[in-house]
Amino acid sequence: MGLITVVRRLCGKDKSKLRRADESSKSLSGLKYEITDFLRRTCDGYNSTHTGVPNSHINCANPKISKGLSKEAAEKRLQQDGPNVLAPPKEINNLMLFLRQFLNMFWILMMGASILSLITYFIDTSVRLNLYVAIVLFLIVLVMCIATFIQEKKAINVVRGFGNLIPQNVPL
């Protein structure tokens, strides 16, 4: 037995177990086991025997005889609760996204240092170094906030692209 095999077994990453888990997840019997296991855990959580989960039409004792909702009950729930859809996330406009970049604590500290340096310059205008430091600190914060804004905008577009890959309707 090789060192890599021993390490994999100690870490719980044995290839034979992974292969078996992968094969069972592809088979319908594995899926059936997962569903019945979920049903058993759900029924045990409600300490029910044959009555089922509250507000459910599942018979915990014999799930095979559970028929689900009737067409009328399904239409009533659709009328009452509406369609089963997720609301799209609230979009933030570019100006608010850009202004939010300045709320980083480090940038706030640098802006504070820039303001203090500017105040020091106005107290004694003969020392121009305070003005230069204030300008440089402000420019650093501005450039970094612009860079962060661009990166966050790209990330938002990537996430939006992933959203386009998800199907809008899924058959059950």
TrEMBL record:
One of its GO terms (cellular component) is plasma membrane. The keyword Metal-binding does not apply. The chain crosses the membrane at residues 102-123, 129-150. It holds the Pfam family Cation_ATPase_N. Keywords: Membrane, Transmembrane, Transmembrane helix. Residues 37-122 form the Cation-transporting P-type ATPase N-terminal domain. One of its GO terms (molecular function) is P-type sodium:potassium-exchanging transporter activity. GO terms for biological process: intracellular potassium ion homeostasis; intracellular sodium ion homeostasis; potassium ion import across plasma membrane; proton transmembrane transport; sodium ion export across plasma membrane. SUPFAM superfamilies: Calcium ATPase, transmembrane domain M (SSF81665). PANTHER family: CATION-TRANSPORTING P-TYPE ATPASE N-TERMINAL DOMAIN-CONTAINING PROTEIN, SODIUM/POTASSIUM-TRANSPORTING ATPASE SUBUNIT ALPHA. This is Cation-transporting P-type ATPase N-terminal domain-containing protein. It comes from Steinernema carpocapsae. The lineage of its organism: Eukaryota, Metazoa, Ecdysozoa, Nematoda, Chromadorea.
